[in-house]
Hints:
By secondary structure, this protein is α/β, with parallel strands linked by helices. It is built from 4 helices and 6 strands; from the N terminus they run αβαβαβββαβ.
Amino acid sequence: MKLNELKGNQGSTKKRMRVGRGIGSGKGKTCARGQKGQKSRTGVAIKGFEGGQMPLYRRLPKRGFNNPTRKNLVGINLAKIQEAFDSKKLNPKNVIDSLALLEAGLIKRNCDGVRILGAGEIKTKAKFLVSGATKSAVAAIEKLGGAVEFIPEAKKPEKKKATS
């Protein structure tokens, strides 16, 4: 078998219809778009149009606010971290960061960072490098002699005001 002998399965490809190539083709003149008007032309943008009636997306009430700059942090409890220490999935002598938690299987994905939550208790001294932590989690870690370092956030450059 050679590359030039390969073929697709029977019926897997279909030739595209060539419209506007004469009346005899069956798709000439109006090209199966009907008669005149906006829909017969390209660039039609009337998806939400309801014949002049107030459209559904404007009739329904709007609630809340979606913050585009919100950080999506993955939360993990101290109890889960202690279980990982006990089962030797995490080494407390190494710095515990998002990659270590990912490799240990404690988090599924590292979105914008990791936040340590204070639920449960920890019995092992360790150093953490995370995006955030609750006050109770920091207190529990530092009580054992461990440390929590926070990853600094990159600041966006401020826009200069135009002087007139």
